[in-house]
Amino acid sequence: MMFDDMKANVKNWTDEEEVKEYLKKLLHKEAFDRAGLIYGMGHAVYSQSDPRAKVFKGFVEKLSAEKGREEEFALYSLVEKLAPEVIAGERRIFKGVCANVDFYSGFVYRMLGIPDELFTPIFAVSRIAGWSAHRIEELINSNKIIRPAYKAISPMHEYTDMENRMD
């Protein structure tokens, strides 16, 4: 997890300059998985703020206090504050960048004692309804480009009512 690497490599979690330097290393592919990304930052639609993230953050703050992990919450908050500035200074961007709703998710899962290997399945399950709605919208509006892109890999077949399906 990106924040595990950050916590291991940033000695003073409250030092804005040290945190900024680590974020620059992420963007320059010199830290963590060398993907050049700050995970949890940016969204296809929300550029100034993700309203879902703002609401979620309030709950995360309360949970971190309950679990005695306020210092980690403060680090996440600092990254949320500094990352847009660092990204704008290092990349050519045409709109703002903000924390998305998943920025704090891994931290919450950890505080709840959820094993790391379940993070991705939880992420996927929480999006199935949205992905399905996008696909239905795409099929209804066949000439309109809709994000995210979807490419079916299974063979096409006719719809079968539930009562006529085999087990």
Q: Kindly, what is the distance between the CA atoms of the first and last residues, rounded to a whole number of angstroms?
A: 40 Å
What structural class results from the helix and strand content? mainly alpha
Specify the number of helices.
7
Question: Can you write the helix and strand succession as a string?
Answer: HHHHHHH
Instruction: Return Rg in Å.
Output: 20 Å
Largest sheet: none
Mean pLDDT: 91
Q: Which shape, going by the Cα principal axes?
A: globular
CATH superfamily descriptor of the largest domain: Cytochrome P450-Terp, domain 2
Work out the oligomeric state of the chains in this entry.
Answer: single chain
CATH fold-level label of the largest domain = Cytochrome p450-Terp, domain 2
- What is the number of strand segments? 0
Task: Describe the structure in your own words.
The protein is built from seven helices and no strands. The mean pLDDT is 91. Helix 2 packs across helix 4. The chain has 167 residues and is an all-alpha fold. It folds into two domains: 113 residues, Orthogonal Bundle (Cytochrome p450-Terp, domain 2), CATH 1.10.230; 34 residues, no CATH class.
Short description:
The protein is mostly helical and 167 residues long. The protein is built from seven helices and no strands. It has two domains: 2-114, Cytochrome P450-Terp, domain 2 (Cytochrome p450-Terp, domain 2, Orthogonal Bundle); 119-152, no CATH class.
Keyphrases for this structure?
0% strand; 50% helix; mainly alpha; 167 residues; Cytochrome p450-Terp, domain 2
